[in-house]
């Protein structure tokens, strides 16, 4: 999956929590979100749109970007957990300091289950499933 295809896939399923997401889809969107947030921070600093007197405070552009990417980030995270045959509720383990982050990181890095699982068909097999008669 190309980076642009991965980002388009996540944004086209803006609030889609059903199904599965490949590792590449998740990580390309994570990189995209980080870069957009970084650029928003630079723009906030250059335009002086910080919301507080603290130089580390979030700016207006950063806040808009964060709110715009929150729902698709949650959705692709849940779909990524589905790919590893885990419920989206596992995201809540991220609330446990340090340990929760490490557990989620392991889940997100782990390869998805092969074949169909209770959350849908294997996204790696999708191109082959779309073309009948191709082995």
Could you characterize what this model shows?
The protein has 135 residues and is mostly helical. Helix content is 56%, strand content 0%. The protein has 5 helices and no strands. α1 crosses α2 and α2 runs antiparallel to α3. The radius of gyration is 17 Å and the shape is elongated. It starts with a helix and ends in a 5-residue tail after the last helix.
Short description:
The chain has 135 residues and is mostly helical. The chain contains five helices and no strands.
Shape: elongated
Task: Please state the structural category.
Answer: mainly alpha
What's the main sheet like?
Answer: none
Which whole number gives the mean pLDDT?
89
Q: Termini distance?
A: 20 Å
Count of separate DSSP helical elements: 5
What share of the residues lie within helices? 55-70%
Unreliable runs: 128-135
Give the SSE string: HHHHH
Radius of gyration: 17 Å
Number of DSSP-assigned strands: 0
Into which percentage range does the β-strand content fall? under 5%
Fold topology:
Blueprint: H1 3-12, H2 23-47, H3 60-83, H4 99-109, H5 126-130
Helix pairs in contact: 1-2, 2-3
Keywords:
disordered C terminus; mainly alpha; 135 residues; single chain; 5 helices
